[in-house]
Design goal:
Length: 243
């Protein structure tokens, strides 16, 4: 390789690094599965579509879905759609705190209704009514029909009154930051949720592409009712080994 070719290669590498650094939510991974979404912190809205009460808190650099007020609902969606015919894994940290009686919870969603999608407050968890969706909810308030005070559930078609699957979280969702990992294996339609550790908390089978469509927006919703809390997403990444 000539000196000129090596110089061009160095310039290209630097240019790609600068693009990645200047684009919130986009990462260039040198090794491992491609990172489609990467927010180690939320410096600004960047490539997120924010709806309802959802906002970026500049001082704490968190995505705040609800701010402790009554009957709030917020939603945030990444601009880059994901391919639901392929496997993916998403990891995030959440912090539900500073409220009156704690409520109602948050959810990770894939949905094809669009980047302005927003559901209802209270037990609707911010996603009730988003019909083209599959939600993984983290619910800390015992609404009618809920299996436990703190539970994880998989919900289809924006109807939190009916759960495809539920399980106790095993840890309190309110008061202390916790980590969640959601893994989806597209060939087998296996959806596995890990809350607060490396052991599966919930496993079920759902065809995401069949329920939602081949591509979808990924993101979060949260809501309060007559009981409230501040509900933050501290960090978020999503990778797809077959992207």
């Amino acid at each position: 390789m000539s000196y000129r070719q090596r110089a061009k290669g160095c310039i290209l590498t630097v240019a790609l690094s600068l693009v990645a650094a200047a684009t919130p939510g986009v990462a260039l991974a040198a090794d491992g599965p491609p990172t489609l979404i990467d927010y180690p912190a939320f410096l600004d809205a960047g490539t997120l579509s924010l709806n309802g009460t959802a906002a970026i808190e500049p001082q704490s650099q968190v995505l705040r879905l609800t701010g402790g007020g009554y009957r709030q609902e917020g939603a945030a969606w990444a601009a880059q759609q994901i391919d639901l015919t392929r496997s993916f894994e998403t990891t995030f940290r959440a912090y539900l705190h500073a409220g009156a009686n704690k409520a109602d919870g948050i959810a990770f969603l894939v949905q094809s209704a669009g980047p302005r999608a927003l559901g209802s407050w209270g037990g609707g968890l911010g996603y009730r009514g988003i019909r083209q969706s599959v939600a993984v909810e983290l619910d800390d308030y015992p609404n009618p029909g809920d299996p436990a005070t703190d539970h994880v559930g998989v919900v289809l078609r924006g109807n939190p009154d009916y759960h495809l699957a539920t399980a106790p979280t095993g840890i309190p969702l309110y008061g202390t930051p916790f980590s969640v990992r959601v893994s989806y294996d597209a060939p087998t339609h296996a959806l596995t949720v890990y809350v607060g550790g490396d052991q599966p908390t919930l496993s079920t089978t759902v065809d995401l592409a069949g329920e939602v469509g081949p591509t979808a927006w990924a993101g979060f919703t949260g809501a309060t009712g007559d009981a409230t809390s501040t509900q933050d997403i501290l960090s978020w990444s999503l990778t797809s080994p077959t992207a």
